[in-house]
Amino acid sequence: MKLKGLATITATAILLTACGNGSSDSGSKSEGSNKKSDNNQVIALDEIKTSPEDAVKKAQDVYSGQNLKGISYEKSNGEWAYKIEQQKSGEESEVIISDKNKKVLNEETEKEDAINKNDEFKYSDAIDYKKAIKKGQNEFDGDIKEWSLAEDEGKLVYDMDIQKGKTKHEITVDAKNGKVLNNEADN
FRET label pair with 53: which of 9, 47, 86, 133, CA 20 to 30 Å apart? Predict the structure, then answer.
C-alpha cells in the first residue's frame, strides 16, 4: 500500500534526521525533559498548543465518515505536527495538522481494496497522551522525541522514543491502563 510505504519512508527520514543532527544533550533530568532543547527536536509538553482530540476532529472534517486508525506527534517540515491516519470502507487517508495553528499541512487519500476494522479506535478509549508519556519517562528518564498511538496486535498502545544523551529507548505503554509493556534500548 502506497500510504503505508510513504508513512514508513517519512518515519525513517524523521528518525535519520533526528539521529544525524550532531547535537549533544544537555544531560538534564526529568524537569528538563519537558523543556525545549537548543536543537528544537524535543517535545515540550507544556508548549503543545493543539490537543489530540482537536487534531482528530480537524482530520475528520477534511475526510468525513472515516474512522481513526493512528495518531502520531512528530516533526514535519521543521514544525511539530500531528499525523492522523483514518480509514473507511475502500479508502484510507492521512492528514498532517500543524500544532501551532491547527492548519492542515498535507492531506492524502487513496483507495484500498481491503481495510482492517480491528485497526480502528476512538481517542477517548486511551489514557491522555501526557499521562502515557509520564509513564514512559518514569521507565527511562529522558527527552521525548516523538510519540504515536495505534492498535498493535489487538492492543491500543502508545509508542514513544525517549532519549538521554546518546542513549535512546523505545517504550510501549498500554493506552488503556498506562502499564509499560516494553522498554527497548536502541543505541
Answer: 9
